Automatic annotation (TrEMBL):
EC class name: transferase
Chief localisation class: cytoplasm
Protein's name in the database: Xanthine phosphoribosyltransferase
InterPro entries (UniProt xref): PRTase-like (IPR029057), PRTase_dom (IPR000836), Pur/Pyrimidine_PRTase (IPR050118), Xanthine_PRibTrfase (IPR010079)
Domain Phosphoribosyltransferase: 43-147
Catalytic reaction equation(s): XMP + diphosphate = xanthine + 5-phospho-alpha-D-ribose 1-diphosphate
SUPFAM superfamilies hit by this protein: PRTase-like
Gene this chain is encoded by: xpt
PANTHER family assigned to the protein according to its UniProt record, in alphabetical order: HYPOXANTHINE/GUANINE PHOSPHORIBOSYLTRANSFERASE (PTHR43864), XANTHINE PHOSPHORIBOSYLTRANSFERASE (PTHR43864:SF1)
Record's keyword terms, sorted: Cytoplasm, Glycosyltransferase, Purine salvage, Transferase
Amino acid sequence: MQELEERIRRQGTVKPGNVLKVDAFLNHQCDVRLFDHMGAEWARLFAGHQIDKILTIEASGIGIACLAARHFGDVPVVFAKKTQSINLDGDQYTTRIYSFTKQREYPVIVAKRFLKKGEHVLILDDFLAKGNALHGLIDICHDAKVVIEGIGIAVEKGFQEGGRTLRKEGYNLKSLAIVESMDPDQGTITFAHNPA
Ligand code: 5GP
């Protein structure tokens, strides 16, 4: 998606440790017009799929998922919550996710009443690096016995293995921008040809 690539080029900064900072429009300050355009693009990419619900993870997934939902017939958005304590009364799906940026593992929950067996779900998130966050959401989907119709990502870092692994596992993964390389010294960012 050219508009997103241009914004990353213009306002993205490359941090040590393979971290791309895009908090001017995605991870801290939110450009809702851009989010709306991203939602329209995912709707085009997943046209023809039955989507009953969008599943994402807090915090940065929420804004993009809510704007995207407007393009999928205003379906509900459910976000997985990062939590300190897991309640053991069985009314939640739980998993653990290793955070690439925070370098620690944390528990994640979704209330069972918000994911029902047989629902068709689109998973959305802001970044894809090694795929840990998405695999956590996929685990929850499997526990809930929902159908994963597809996975939409804003920024995939194509030089990390998450995208390759998920495509090999057979998921219908569409990323709006795929970063091919980034150089923290020069600040340069290049994009892969994106078949989406
Ligand atoms: P993964 O679980 O695929 O390794 O990493 C994905 C998660 O880590 C995303 O949900 C995002 O929050 C965070 N993340 C990974 N890489 C980056 C990055 O380069 N920049 C930013 N802003 N977040 C990242």
